Amino acid sequence: MKRLSDERAKILFEKLSKYVGNNVKQLIDRPDGTYCFREHRDRVYYVSERILKLSECMGQERLICVGTCFGKFSKTNKLKFHITALYYLAPYAQYKVWVKPSFEQQFLYGNHIPKNGLGRITENTGQYQGVVVYSMNDLPLGFGVTARSTTECKTADPLVNVCFHQSDIGEYIRSEDTLF
To answer: 49, 66 in Cβ contact below 8 A?
Structure first.
C-alpha cells in the first residue's frame, strides 16, 4: 500500500468534495480513529491508520487489500467510485436525490432517473452536481450526477432525465464475474 501521488490525491479529493463538500475532513478525523487513503494496484483504499500499521509487516506482493475500496483509477487517470464507498459517503452527502418506489428497481438495473421517477431532491442542487441516490425509505442506493438543477426539475418534462446513473448497489449482481 503506497501513498497517493500529489496528482492522484488531488483527483480523489476533488471527486470526494463533489459528493460530500467540506465533510471530507470528517472522513479522515473520525471519533474511532484517524483514517487515510492509500493506493494499491490503481485502486484507492480507505483504511484506519492503526490497521495500516499492522499491515506493514506484510510484503506488497503478498497483500491483496487493506481497508475499503473507494474506487479505481483508469488508465487516463480518472477516478470512478465503487459502490463500496457508498455507506461511508452517504451520511456526509451534501446533495441527495430520492427515488420513487416504482422506479427503484429501474435505477438498480443501471438506468438514469427521469423526472417521473424522482421523489425528492435537495434544494439548491446545481446541474452536474454529484448526488447520493436514496430510496424513499432513506436507504442509500447509489451515486449519480444531476442532469438538471433543482429549479429546472420543477418545470421539466416528465420523461426528461434529471439524474444520470453512476453506480448502484445492484452492481454486485450485474458484474459479479468481473469484480475479482
So the answer is: no
